[in-house]
Amino acid sequence: LISRLADARNLRDAGFRLVNEVQRHLGCKEVAIGLRRGRRCRLLAVSGRSEVDIRTDSAQVFEAVFGEALLTGESTSWTAASNRPATEAHRVLCQERRSGAVYSGVLAEGEHEPRWVWVALADQEWTPRQTRFLDAAGMALAGPLRLLASKGALKAIPARPGSWSRKLAWLAIPAAIIGALWLPVPFRVAGD
């Protein structure tokens, strides 16, 4: 999975590669991933689809499940036979997609706050092996996704500066780095 992310052009491409690979590996019905921006978590990719329209009702149901996963901060497995009230969005998604089980979990590494959430749908209840895989993959994939997101932020600066403001932006970055290197750092040397 991590090698698939390394070849991605941007976050959206990484999301599509990730969900399609997880769906293929687990043999489940559908997998979706969302990216947290501010207080909301937006749908980034759904397996088996090349484009995602976040204005549709199904996208909003996925985003509601993402919100529940971010609130709990841990993985949740919900089956059609369950009536737990804390997972209302899971129930709605399960009914809308005609699935037997829904799994949701955050992709977080260490103490970093989670920025990604994924949801997987299956026709039957999740096996312990499948949930362990999703939990372990969530921890392992958070770092590469974070690096890809920061790489994408650097791509926002144009490769060829054309206007004076862009040229100034290109000069400001090295100037800030050089300026930071010249800051005095207090230290003491102690001898025996």
Walkthrough of the structure:
This protein is α+β, with helices and mostly antiparallel strands and 192 residues long. 48% of the residues lie in helices and 17% in strands. The protein contains 6 helices and 5 strands; from the N terminus they run H-H-E-E-H-E-H-E-E-H-H. It has helices spanning 2-6, 11-26, 57-72, 88-96, 128-155, 164-181, and strands at residues 30-37, 40-46, 76-79, 101-107, 116-122. It has a 5-stranded antiparallel β-sheet with strand order 2-1-5-4-3, sandwiched between helices. Strand 4 and strand 5 form a beta hairpin. The longest helix is centred in the C-terminal third of the chain and has 28 residues, at 128-155. It is elongated. The N and C termini lie far apart (53 Å). Residues 153-161 have low confidence and may be disordered.
Q: What is the compact description of this entry?
A:
The protein has 192 residues and is of the alpha+beta class. It has helices spanning 2-6, 11-26, 57-72, 88-96, 128-155, 164-181, and strands at 30-37, 40-46, 76-79, 101-107, 116-122.
